[in-house]
Write a structure and sequence with these properties.
The complex is a heterodimer of chains A (359) and B (134). Chain A is mainly α and 359 residues long. Helix content of chain A is 68%, strand content 0%. Among the domains of chain A are: 93 residues, no CATH class; 89 residues, Leucine-rich Repeat Variant (Alpha Horseshoe). Chain B has a single domain, classed as Rossmann fold (3-Layer(aba) Sandwich), CATH 3.40.50. At the A-B interface, helix 1 and helix 3 of A face helix 1, helix 4 and helix 5 of B.
Chain lengths: 359, 134
Amino acid sequence: MHLPPELVLRVLIWGTLILASLVCGLILVGAGIQYRRDRQNRYRIARFQSWEKDLAVYLFSGTGASRPFPPIAREDRSLFQTFLARYHATLAGQEAEALKDLYLGLGVHKSIPHRLKHRLATVRAQAAQEVGIFRLSEYLESVVPLLNDPVPYVAHLAAQSLARAGDLRFARPVLDWVLREEKYQRERLLRVLEGFGPELLPWLETTLEAPVVDPESWILFALLAGSHRHRESEPRLLELIDTSVVDIQASALKALAALADPLTYPRVEPLARHEAWPIRAQAAKALGLIGGPDAIPTLIALTSDQVYEVRRNAAQGLADLGHAGTSALTWLTEDPTADRFARDIARERLEWTDERGHQ
Amino acid sequence: MSRVWPENTRVLVVEDDQATARLIQARLEMEGLQVFVAHNGVDGLEILHREAIDLITTDLMMPAMNGFRLVQEIRDLPPPKGRVPILLISSNQNEQDMVRCLAAGADDYMTKPISAQVLVERLWRMHQRASSGG
């Protein structure tokens, strides 16, 4: 088929014009969006700066009903909620209560039950977060279904809010949610459970099934006991180091190290010779924190272990023992007959402690 | 409780979160204190070199130079700047970090969330101790 040249030219010109107008249109839309965002940002910054001054006056001058705070316009309420949420991790005591009063004064909490069921995940997440941040206990029951939310961060915020309330009625659903999550997120999940406070530990002890039946929960128990430095959990931790589940034993040793009770030394020391390396590694760490000079020969032996993590923890254990342990590390670096691994790890640890400002 | 701060008492607030820094600044200014704000340890150290600071409050986790390093740097300075009382504010309850900071020379510490009332009281105590040569 042969097209007349005039038609081809006309098609090319029109095509170019249409394309050019499309590009121009897109540029204009982009610029419009950017302009709108800039305006919103400028407005947000201006409001935040003004509220910051008002907040300081509200929090720090006068008390109770005498506290002044200018009224918030209806269209600014959402922005104001964001503004208040910035301070939840900073303020405590009477000032945190005053912040809560300010939030309640907005009246937006009344829409929480509706927002918790909203079709948009961001709205559900914000509602769940508000319940936690402003400790709105009357809405906690309504947050529980969000633990099964298909959007992970909504479920996470729901768990965080329930835990932060410290109400053990919600310990079971939150624990079940934690157990459903991926194990590689354990540290992050542990932070959620810490929200319940140390009161969760006696609850776990009385509620959980035997360690061989429910090992993951007992690992969490041990790690929580360590992070709360919960002395009352020590008898149970000593039982857990004798179980047959390596991960439980290692976690219990980690917790005992955090408790740093020298009386547990005779129970921990034999585990430095355990066949499983994660247990030897945790025992090495623990010995540095609960042992005295008696632990030095065991730790020196572990600096030539075949597993790097054990050698590293043994060297750190020696450094943690203080002057006697550091002397042992120095001796290792200078002893030509010492194991090569031991010498290297001792040198590395001494350099590291120098850099970090340890003795 | 009434506190009478000496005239021109200067406090350096080192805090990377600007909203928190401004709130602390507002509270301390209500006490009649002169407040200097830095958002990291490097800037904090620069202000300390420039101004006659009486008290320092610093966050632990900060960019450029963290609170631990800042405490060490200050304590390496000759007196009187090297002896300025330091209150450390940490956002986690990591005991080891706190012990390290106290060992490095911080005079006191607080864990977030904090009560501004308690913060002022602690600064007052630190100032009293420093004034009496304790």
